[in-house]
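Q: Convert this sequence to structure tokens.
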Amino acid sequence: MFKLDSQTALLDSFRPKDRTLVELPSDLTFPLVVKDYVAWTHPAGGRVFVVFATPGGVPTGIAFDSNNGGGMPSMCSWCHTSSVGTGVGLLVATVNGKRRAGVLVCSDLSCRDKLEEAANRSGASVRPAMEKLIARIGQFASDALKIDLSGAGR
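A:
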């Protein structure tokens, strides 16, 4: 769990090169207490944003370009939920000026809702699944995008 006190704090969670891409939803209010992660889509489409924090890390934002799914049955790499149609798609983020990295995930980053629904159906706690989800998001940010999750260099 983490807290973002202001719009500036939220924007500062993104790498400087991504901050100009971020458009905040109009219904977002501060301070914002985030249990696991917060995600939203750009009002015009084409972009998806997520802010999360791994244990011991600082809030970290990723700005994705979205292709809105491919129509084929696919499984989300983060929550491991399968979907047909546009439910799962390739989200791509900039690594640097020459490289981009993609991940096949829930197109609207609604992983939390899907994990909560599965936990409710089985009567299990959602916490272990959420911890794995946050770890997978962090691994993508660290390994593929080379983002330092400690916040150094931001």
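Residues 2-144 form one domain.
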